[in-house]
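Sample intake sheet
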Amino acid sequence: MPRNEAAAGSDSALHVGDGGAGRFRVAPAPDKLRLVQDLLNTAPVTKRRGDVPDLLDAPDSAAKWLSGHGISATSPGVNSLRELRDAIRRSLIARDHGPDAVSGQAPVVIEASARLRLDADGIVRFAPGPAGIPALIEHVLTAIHDAQRAGTWRRLKLCRSQECLVAFWDSSRNTSGVWHDVRTCGNAENLRKSRARRAADSTA
């Protein structure tokens, strides 16, 4: 059994969410990576048209998000969950945008424990483990581990626009996508570059 499917047995009420589709109009990642994408898209976004708040910052919005994943709002560990989210986002930025994009940010190591069990049929499976936010953290790390082994982790990216950084699933054949929406972020970035070139030409 794939590791992420086995781990799901440790908390049957856990929900993977919509990947942030409702918040940012992105296509959700497949299977358990949707949970990772959903967590990444709780992060705040600074835009010219108005900031999008951090869903894990205020108690009310954090409680609503946790409830949507089958987790009690009183479960301790929101700070640890936010730390995990930011660490994953940093790693994705360094991987896809270049190490200079995260210069000055200290890397963070996140650990979680998982229990294995040899069943009577000879199959090793995950045993029921922690509940609440610790279970969610375990599920997120397990989903990433499985995706890295399967070679699909490279398809979960953050938008190249520094004003966006929304997590999106790159479904292109050669994983060449860099914008969560080429019509908005892509066109805006191309327009900025075009204006910069014209300004440089006018002063040359």
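Comment: The first helix runs from residue 3 to 7. The chain has seven helices and four strands.
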